[in-house]
Amino acid sequence: MGALSHAEKTTPVPWEKHGGSIGHLVKLAYIAMRRELDASIREAGITPTQWQALGVLCHMPGLTHSELMRHLAIEPPSVTSLVNGMQRKGWIRWERSPADARAKRLFLTAAGRRLIDSLRRATEPIERRMAAALSESERETLRRLLRTLVESLT
Fold this sequence. Notes:
The protein is mainly α. The protein has a domain at 21-125: Winged helix-like DNA-binding domain superfamily/Winged helix DNA-binding domain (Arc Repressor Mutant, subunit A). It has seven helices and two strands, in the order αααααββαα. Strands 1-2 form a two-stranded antiparallel ribbon. Helix 4 packs across helix 5. It is globular and about 50 Å long.
């Protein structure tokens, strides 16, 4: 085999040429989706992390600070600041846990539910656009494959 020319040594091979790593492709898809979603929720005066937290609490009411922290993959000081800010805005409330008086369970308020509903209307067109790129069968396959990847790493 002959030696590579200078151009061949320094010209990167585009990731598309070799299929790209799974992690890189997942990241690119996430970034593209996130950019669109963040722009639509920012107009409502809410941060992406607040939006995620409200969504988690909508689907899993009664989580503790530590459970919310795990679902959002953020550090303890960040979850405390996040929860305090959302309480000040009237989006969430807490109740003492009947099982452990030291634990606070977090719930959406009526204002938090209204905010979630209005933001869903703003983000649904983005979700529909993404879904339209795949058939129903492909969407189900993608969901199954992504769940498998997540489970393999957790």
